[in-house]
């Protein structure tokens, strides 16, 4: 099983959050970035623009603004909330390359809101 369905659920959750949270949307709306997610044998890319995620594809883009590299197991643990992002980073289970301000925006994409299912 690939991570694509879980990533799509996270994208859908992000879109719902942008619809319901005008403050969060205002923070993310001016950001336009491309993101690569390298899971070893699986690769995904997406584009964040105007508080929407576009072009989610099972491929890597050349010269993406952000590269997130990890394993499917670690990404699954991050999505499920059984592994905290800072712990994953400190344990070197995840690497993120890009400008620091770009990386901080990545948090908006994958931040967990336990109230929403």
Specify the CATH architecture. 2-Layer Sandwich
> Structural class given helices, strands, pairing?
alpha+beta
Number of strands: 5
Principal-axis shape equals globular
Q: How would you characterize the largest beta sheet? A: 5 strands, mixed
CATH superfamily: SCP2 sterol-binding domain
* Total of helices: 5
Main β-sheet, spatial strand arrangement: 3-2-1-4-5
**What is the alpha-carbon Rg in Å?**
13 Å
* Low-pLDDT runs: 112-117
- State the helical fraction: 40-55%
Mean residue pLDDT? 88
**Terminal Cα span:** 22 Å
CATH class: Alpha Beta
CATH fold category name: Nonspecific Lipid-transfer Protein, Chain A
Report on this structure.
This protein is an alpha+beta fold and 117 residues long. The protein has a single domain, classed as SCP2 sterol-binding domain (Nonspecific Lipid-transfer Protein, Chain A), CATH 3.30.1050.10. The protein is 43% helix and 23% strand. It contains five helices and five strands, in the order ααββββααβα. It has helices at residues 4-20, 22-28, 72-80, 85-90, 100-110; strands at 32-38, 43-49, 52-57, 66-69, 95-97. The protein has a five-stranded mixed beta sheet, covered by helices on one side. Strand 1 (32-38) and strand 2 (43-49) form a beta hairpin. The longest helix has 17 residues, at 4-20. It is globular and about 35 Å long. The two termini are 22 Å apart. Residues 112-117 have low confidence and may be disordered.
